[in-house]
Amino acid sequence: MRLLLFATLLLSISAYMAYRVLxxxxxxxISQVVSYLSPAPFVALAMFIVLxxxxxxxxxxxxxxxxxxxxxxxxxxxxxxxxxTVVALQRWIAPNPVFVAYIVARDALLILIASIYSFxxxxxxxxxxxxxxxxxxVLIGLTAIAVTLVMLYFAGQRTGxxxxxxxxxxxxxGFVQFxxxxxxxxxxIPSDVFAIGTAAAVSGGYDYILPESALWLILxxxxxxxxxxxxxxxxxxxxxxxxxxxxxxxxxxxGMLILAICCxxxxxxxxxxxxxxxxxxxxxxxxxxxxxxxxxxLAQEMNVQIPVGYTEQSAQSIEDRLVEQYDANFSTDETQxxxxxxxxAVVAIMNxxxxxxxxxxxxxxxxxxxxxxxxxxxxxxxxGNLSVSVxxxxxxxxxxxxxxxxTMGFLGTACYPYSAFNLANIASLPRQFSDLGYRTIAMxxxxxxxxxxxxxxxxLGFDEFLDIDDxxxxxxxxSGVSDAATYxxxxxxxxxxxxxxxxxxxxMQNHGGYTLGMTAQGLPYxxxxxxxxxxxxxxxxxxxxxxxxxxxxSDFIAELRTLERPVIVLVFGDHQxxxxxxxxxxxxxxVEDISTVERLYTTQYVIWANYDIAGNxxxxxxxxxxxxxxxxxxxxxxxxxxxxxxxxxxxxRDRVSAINAIGYRNAEGLWLDxxxxxxxxxxxxxxxxxxxxxxxxx
Length: 698
Description:
single chain; elongated; 13 strands; alpha/beta; three-stranded antiparallel sheet; 28 helices
């Protein structure tokens, strides 16, 4: 729909330009439109510099000389532009082969100059790696800009008017990118396009200081805009010939737009040109690949495919039927009354790279006791294996599945919703708790910009986000701030604020790599068969991290037992470490059976409360789930109200007990291929439900 609106706008502008050529007359078009408006861009640029300089918004230092030079040049361009149009653009020369060839060569050269300038304008202020960029990435960026400017050239009836607008647009984006990188440490990503209103609302808190190089960039912009005003069209004599040529220009522009859209939707930039989609820490790939290639590679992940046969009415009918089924079979009145009366704090801990590999990797061929404390809990509300969609990385997708109840099974392993979508309009756990009067807090002791969490968390409904700046001086372990330090922060929040809280804690200490030689107290150094000493060392390093996590959790639970307020805690792992694949391959060489492969995509979870949950025996019952169902099960156990979507997903558990990006598990416990033609109708129902509640809203 957005592409259709853009195409309609482009063709409308082209039609208007054609109307001015035809209806207004050649002389009227040139004298009134071009002559009067030609100086406007230069005057606007000069005024921008004056206002910025008067406000002291340039970096400290003597900027009088470059400022004066730039303003004088822009004023000169404005004057020359006005008089040049009177002399040059009012003269219509009858076309002949030599003159037409000159026109084509001139305009092609001008578009090339404008494209090169636009590419530099997008990068030069913020990208200190510009000169090291690979040629193929430069060509991708230049090609995209050139195609855009050529489209505008024909849409503008072969004048430089719309091309100049394009140049100003790319220059403006370069300035915005400079400010975003300077103050946020992150680049502009596609989902930012849908959050312009939010960005504008918070933009007043920044001091927009420009470097001196911005003055020279504006001067270069003025030079390019002045050159583009030599793009004066030449039409054939006769009204019908002019109509034909105007229509042809519009068709060429529209055809290029359609071709560009088709290429964008059918050619994967990441797969074809080896682009890093820049999801983990977007800024470095933006610098090495350039703004446009990186932005477009991310934008290609934003399309959610409409399920075959989907209609909103059919999806709504499925949801209504499943909600009715859930309400009839699952009575939660007792726990709901308790929830309303006690308003317990809800803490969800997603432990980085945490997994008890003993049960999922055949005991690792050694006498490994596993997570001794977590496995010994006898008063948990629920616990079991958790199926996730990522392995060795991709933490944000496990977050997404848990916090929104959507599965990556219908989005693909290459998609990262935190970076690709505007999440402000979808249901989420923090938004649900916020609507219930809870204070919602996310914490992660690392950079807020990782996985674009600084943008995703507010969009999901979190009131606060505690990042690495809130953990200064905290104890460290292995790869960063310790699990114990984050648990101390949770206890601090719970003790200082008696109001109901939903706290989401994403830990950091177990993050790879595992080459620090950590050893766990109480665990022997394991010598694994079938792997070399290097892999043995890494696995022992990892197991030491798991042991420390288990110990920290034990201390945390012990503190909660003494806390005089009701608290329910969920702890789960986001994914296994990458090294587990080495051990898996050694145990199962060449095995591609989906049920076996799913072992790599298995972690564990436990739900525990420091109070007696109504209707729950708290005898550590086991139920294997997938990450998209975990949030709904947590709400169900605590007695919080469920959305219709959550009820529908839970009602399908008797047919689809788990689902991730790899496959789905049926009622008999068998893992099956999501892409198989004979997949269960319940899986199709899930896909319809997810598109209704997620795909149609982003």
